[in-house]
Specification:
Length: 278
């Protein structure tokens, strides 16, 4: 029950963070947003260090570095994906992809989904197709490049979560601190190399910092949930985060969704629920 609540909390906060990150990336080059979000996220984790403790063992350092590399890619790909939009379609696609890889790893490690999981997996794949199609007048239709970015973002998020889960259970927030430090260093380094290509647009400092801080809290809740429960179940519950993103996109940005896509979003919710029950 504790793992379930932690995963649900992680899901809700991820959704809010992604929405804010996508908004920030619409005002300036995505790397300008990441340059603010990543250090803000690291600052939150450093603040948590004295409270939750950290053990920088070889395992924590290694898996932390790996998660940081994946996180840098996830930050840039996800914010760029959500900036292109529509958020209400691309966010669920990213979520389902980010859930599938951890589920696979969990199964390989001996976790069992049961009948509900066997039904949920193909339903989730079907939902990806439905929410991506967007036929009909006035439908929110993502471009092919946006869908590819969403798939890449989902894969990067999955790798990040898997690496965090592999870190020693007694390492505290060490994997998060190492990962975010690596992520921030990569983002700042890339931005310095391509400074001339970043444009002159000023980033939304407050929105970008808030996105990074919320992402850090969501990562912490996921790590605590994964340590207390099964990776496969925790991953798919965390993948419910598009609900928050979609709600905010519809209320703030007035994004319209075609009826077929609504059915797809419903199927995605059912699929994730089945996987969670498994």
């Amino acid at each position: 029950m504790i793992a379930l609540l932690l995963a649900l909390g992680s899901s809700l906060i991820y959704g809010c963070a992604d929405f804010l990150g996508g908004l920030g990336a619409r005002k300036a080059h995505v790397l300008r947003t990441v340059m603010i979000a990543a250090p803000a996220s690291l600052a939150v984790e450093l603040t948590l260090w004295p409270v939750l403790g950290a053990s920088f063992s070889a395992g924590a350092l290694g898996w932390g570095v790996a998660s940081g590399v994946a996180s840098a890619g996830a930050f840039a790909l996800l914010y760029h994906t959500l900036a292109i939009g529509p958020m209400s379609v691309l966010s669920p696609v990213t979520a389902l992809v980010s859930a599938m890889l951890p589920v696979g790893v969990g199964l390989v490690q001996g976790e069992h989904l049961g009948t509900a999981g066997l039904v949920g997996l193909p339903l989730a794949l079907t939902a990806v197709v439905m929410v991506s199609a967007g036929h009909g007048a006035g439908a929110a239709r993502p471009s092919r490049s946006a869908l590819l970015l969403a798939l890449g973002a989902g894969s990067a998020i999955a790798v990040q979560l898997i690496c965090l889960n592999q870190a020693p259970a007694d390492s505290g927030v060490a994997p998060l601190i190492v990962g975010r430090a690596v992520s921030a260093a990569i983002s700042l380094g890339v931005a310095a190399l391509i400074r001339s290509g970043l444009g002159t647009g000023r980033p939304a400092y407050g929105v970008s910092a808030a996105a990074g801080a919320l992402d850090s809290v969501a990562n912490l809740l996921f790590l605590m949930a994964a340590r207390d429960g099964d990776l496969a179940v925790v991953a798919v519950i965390t993948a419910l985060y598009p609900a928050g993103t979609v709600l905010l996109a519809r209320s703030v940005l007035a994004e319209r969704i075609h009826r077929g896509q609504l059915v797809g979003l419903g199927a995605a919710a059912v699929a994730v629920s089945l996987l969670a029950l498994a």
